[in-house]
Amino acid sequence: MSDLLVVEDLTVTFSTARGPVDVVKDVSFTVGRDETVGIVGESGSGKSMTSLAIMGLLPKGAAARGTIRLDGTDVLGASPRELRQLRGDRMSMIFQDPLSSLNPYYTVGLQIEELYRAHRGGSRAAAREVVVGALRQVGLPDPERRAGHYPHQFSGGQRQRIMIAMALVCSPSLLIADEPTTALDVTVQAQILRLLADLREQSGMGMVFITHDLAVISSIATRVLVMRRGEQVEYGTAEQVFAEPRHDYTRMLLDSIPRIDDPLDEVSA
Amino acid sequence: MARYLAGRAAGVVLILFLVCLFTFIIFFTLSPDPAVMICGKTCTPERIDQIRGVLGLDEPFPAQFLGFFAGIFAGRDYGEGANLVHCAAPCLGYSFQTNQSVWDMVVERLPVSATVAIGAAVLWLFIGIVAGLLSAVKEGTWWDRAAMGLALGGSSIPNYVLALALQYVLVVQLQVLPFPQAVPFSDDPALWFQSYLMPWLVLATGYACLYARLTRANVIDTLAENFMRTARSKGLSPALTLRRHALRPALTPITTIFGMDFAALLGGALITETVFGLNGVGKMAADSIAKNDQPVIMAVTLLAAFFVVIGNVVVDLVYTRLDPRVRITAR
Amino acid sequence: MTLLRAKDLTKRFVSRGPLGAKAAFTAVDRVSFDVRLGETLAVVGESGSGKSTTARMIAKLLEPSEGTLEFEGEDVTRAKGAALARFRGNVQVVFQDPFSSLNPRHTVERILMAPLVYQGIAPHGSRRAHAKELMERVGLDPDHSLRYPAQFSGGQAQRIGIARALAVNPKLVICDEAVSALDVSVQAQVIELLRRLQHESGFSYVFIAHDLAVVRQIAQRVAVMSKGRIVELGTTAQVFGDPRDEYTRTLLAAIPRIDPEWERRRRERA
Ligand SMILES: Nc1ncnc2c1ncn2[C@@H]1O[C@H](COP(=O)(O)OP(=O)(O)OP(=O)(O)O)[C@@H](O)[C@H]1O
Ligand SMILES: Nc1ncnc2c1ncn2[C@@H]1O[C@H](COP(=O)(O)OP(=O)(O)OP(=O)(O)O)[C@@H](O)[C@H]1O
Ligand SMILES: [Mg+2]
Ligand SMILES: [Mg+2]
Questions:
Q1: pLDDT band at A127 (very low <50, low <70, confident <90, very high)
Q2: Is the pLDDT of residue C132 over 80?
Q3: Minimal Cα–Cα distance from B249 to chain A, Å?
Q4: pLDDT grade, residue B32 (50/70/90)?
Q5: Is the same domain home to B74 and B198?
Q6: Domains of chain C as residue ranges with CATH
Q7: CATH of the domain at B222
């Protein structure tokens, strides 16, 4: 079976006042069906830009080169119309910074509902039910009532779960999750990771999972891509990257993880 | 909510009272003696004293002011005995020039000003928002540059120049429009429309240019927001993305500005009404100032203040409905 | 010495239901704690348990429904005018959502200098140099001082927020998930900076975080929140070593770990 997502030699270039700047350089990886590729790396290394390029949502001033194929469709060469049909339905994305990624003027229920109805149609009432179900699935308490609330009325972690519910509502074949659990406590995080793993197994959803939490990556990813300054420094199976890292940067990263069992030093005296 | 409204209402009353007080001080105590004005050229000291008595000008200032202020709510009597004139509430006194009740004058002219204001507002909102939106969506193209250049030029033409030019071209030269007259709509709809068309155009031009630039700037800012990226990620149609996600956030701040502009216009468009000879509140203000007709000047000042203050409250209330983040919640 | 004392802080949010019915939701329920001079108090707990709401109340960005707040022995619950301005100079916040808390129309330099301007403080050297120095301290490229927030990555934006909070030398910094978007090495660098400032200038921190390993490293005391209440408050060693509350135990048990087998193999190779 062919791969779900193929990224080959992806380069993202910003045209700035001081000339072009490559923020992603020659990144290549593939995501198979029911596979999760974890992307880790330095802050500012181009992880979000890589995922935005896959969605065809790069900001103004940025351009992508290379190849991105989703299920055989050439994403970089797709017409706006084709892209629209892919987005939200076949591939969806959970954005970093949920507060600014939700429209403050509309209830969260409506924001998820419009996505569902754009691809699946149906009555508002039917969509409403799906939305409430999606919100319940991510562990939002009292979803019937809270669907009628506005983004600012939720906590950081609740907004993040709303973004997750939104991304999952059309059961996409590819989910790109950009730091989807940073604002969640470890118990809710575990619940969300379990939900994503279930979806992967049941519907064969492929996933690109970006996070700084290496322990999370080690538990969810089948393959891991390590990025630094726009470059791909290491790419391999999770086991290989965590147990036998080849690159110094990866080793340094793994050494810097604060560990819950480390002995405590003077501060807590 | 109820407490909030009560608080705002108290604020409105206080502000209007202060406006009343200051205009009264300015127009009644600092300007030429009204009695002399009314009396005219052939005048005797006795006659002046008599007028003073009738108007209550011989009383101390607080009593005069209270008489005026109470009159607005309760009506008042001028003179006594056979000369007694009752001025029903809301009493704003009588014009020194025509002896007409000032309140009646206001009631008669307000519809004209309102017609001018409403028609112009519809025009400028429509033109301004559509042009601004198109410019924002086509940012950087020739259309954007042309529209914005025009808007910049348009907002710098003074109203009277535009009014006179339009009048000269359309009425005098081409004769496609009649000279404006304030006919009621029910009498002759066609003439009504033709009469108001030029004032509408003149007033709307400046505002439309301003609103086009405001709309463009707001829409461009909104399009760069992260939530617009989310909207695009959903695969919605471009029209829906723009209409639902960009327009409302971009236009909400404009409602505030619009409310204030519109309220100010209701208080009379001085220049436009005067140039076109429309008998609205604005022309009344211009005439009364020219003739130092103090009761009328006071009335138009109060009226303008009233609209601005009420407009402010309405704008705030509307804003809390439009922006969920500032909805008033009772504690 | 106690720097800040929160007593019975309560916040109820009233929202209108679909039928216009009003429902009050108690997000924070009679929460009391002290922050001592020069200490780090961590607040951990369930998502939606009221941590950010508490943070906003002690930063006086949100009016409590009930309860009192003391800063340096002075009741500031209803502080206004000069007292409030003084409080704002002493207490800074790093917000949970980096992009929403930075003005998109201002350059980084302007954002970093704004608190100095409000507080009327003149930095040593020029403003520009000061902004660049702050950027360098949090690991940002000082050459980017004229960029706008949207031109940064999530973790970079978060560091702008941290730099802004440190700009005025506050006594208390409230960090709401301030390091959650940083990779572990930059995170370590920022935590090191926070600690150094604590040593040098005696800063106190209220540190809200979900990463318990980070909390354990940086905090002297930990408060655990669940459903609007503090269910446990104690020294770091006690909370992590001998948790008393059921919820705390669940939390500690759920911490994700790297496969110990992988860890062992990696250590062996090194
Ligand atoms: N509009 C822009 N102009 C120029 N450079 C930009 C712009 N937007 C982002 N960048 C740069 O692109 C680089 C990659 O950003 P990206 O958001 O992909 O990082 P990231 O790996 O997601 O980091 P983080 O973990 O902090 O979110 C960053 O160094 C950032 O400064
Ligand atoms: N403006 C508001 N109106 C109504 N409810 C609100 C409002 N703000 C917050 N809440 C609710 O109050 C509770 C506490 O929110 P808070 O943001 O303090 O949580 P938190 O502990 O910071 O969670 P997280 O870790 O997810 O950020 C949540 O259930 C949230 O939905
Ligand atoms: Mg990112
Ligand atoms: Mg929070």
A1: very high
A2: yes
A3: 7
A4: low
A5: no
A6: 2-265 (3.40.50.300)
A7: 1.10.3720.10
User: How near does any CA of chain A get to the CA of B97, in Å?
Assistant: 54
Which ligand lies nearest the alpha carbon of C50? Answer: 2
The ipTM, to two decimals, is 0.91
What are the structure tokens assigned to A130, written together? 């799906």
Looking at the structure, tell me whether residues B81 and B124 fall in a common domain. Answer: no
Distance A172 CA to ligand 1 centre (A): 26
Ligand 3 mean position, distance from CA B226 (Å): 13
* CATH hierarchy code of domain A3-268: 3.40.50.300
Collect all residues of chain C within an 8 Å Cβ-Cβ radius of residue A213: 211, 256
Rounded to whole angstroms, how far apart are CA atoms B38 and B47? 10
C-alpha–C-alpha distance, residues A234 and A249, integer Å: 9
Taking the C-alpha atoms of residue A247 and residue A241, their distance in angstroms, rounded to an integer, is 9
Say what the pTM is.
Answer: 0.89
Taking a C-beta distance cutoff of 8 angstroms, is the pair B305, B297 a contact? no
Q: In this structure, are B138 and B98 located in the same domain?
A: no
Indicate the burial class of A105 (C-beta count within 10 angstroms; 0-12, 13-18, 19 or more): buried
Weakest mean pLDDT among A256-260, B51-55, B165-169, C78-82: B51-55
Q: Judge whether residue B184 has pLDDT over 90.
A: no
Residues B272 and B183 in one domain: yes
The answer to whether residue B226 neighbours chain C at the CB level (below 8 Å) is: yes
Q: How many domains does chain B have?
A: 2
Do the Cβ atoms of B221 and C105 come within 8 Å?
yes
Nearest CA to CA, how far is B163 from chain A (Å)?
A: 41
Please name the member of B224, B226, B329 whose beta carbon is closest to the beta carbon of C14.
B329
User: How confident is the model over C194-216, as a mean pLDDT?
Assistant: 91
Residue C20 has pLDDT above 60, yes or no: no
Q: A7 pairs with which residues across the strands? A: A29, A68
Instruction: Give, rounded to a whole angstrom, the gap between the first and last alpha carbons of chain B.
Output: 9
Taking the CA of A185 as reference, the closest ligand is 2
Specify whether B133 is located in the same domain as B262: yes
Preferred mutation among C176, C184, C218 to probe A, highest tally of A CBs within 10 A: C184
Q: With bands split at pLDDT 50, 70 and 90, how would you rate the model's confidence at B85? A: confident
End-to-end CA distance of chain C: 46
Residue C154 has pLDDT above 60, yes or no: yes
| pLDDT for the residue A93 | 95
> Do B227 and A114 count as a contact with CB atoms less than 8 A apart?
no
| Token pair 């926070």: residue | C194
| Average pLDDT of span A218-243 | 93
* Residue at a domain's end among B102, B129, B153: B102
Q: Are residues B294 and B185 in the same domain?
A: yes
Q: What percent of chain C shows pLDDT beyond 90?
A: 52
Asked if the C-beta of B325 comes within 8 angstroms of chain A's C-beta atoms, the answer is yes
- Residue B331 pLDDT greater than 60, yes or no: no
Residue B331 lies in a domain: no
Question: What are the residue boundaries of the structural domains of chain A, listed by start?
Answer: 3-268
pLDDT > 70: percent of chain B:
94
Look up the domain containing B157 and give its range.
104-326
Q: Determine whether the shortest distance from the Cβ of A20 to ligand 1 is under 6 A.
A: no
Is B252 a member of any domain?
yes
Q: Are residues B161 and B126 in the same domain?
A: yes
Contact (CB<8Å) A60/B224:
yes
Q: Is residue B148 located within the same domain as residue B250?
A: yes
Write down which residue in B49, B72, B102 finishes a domain: B102
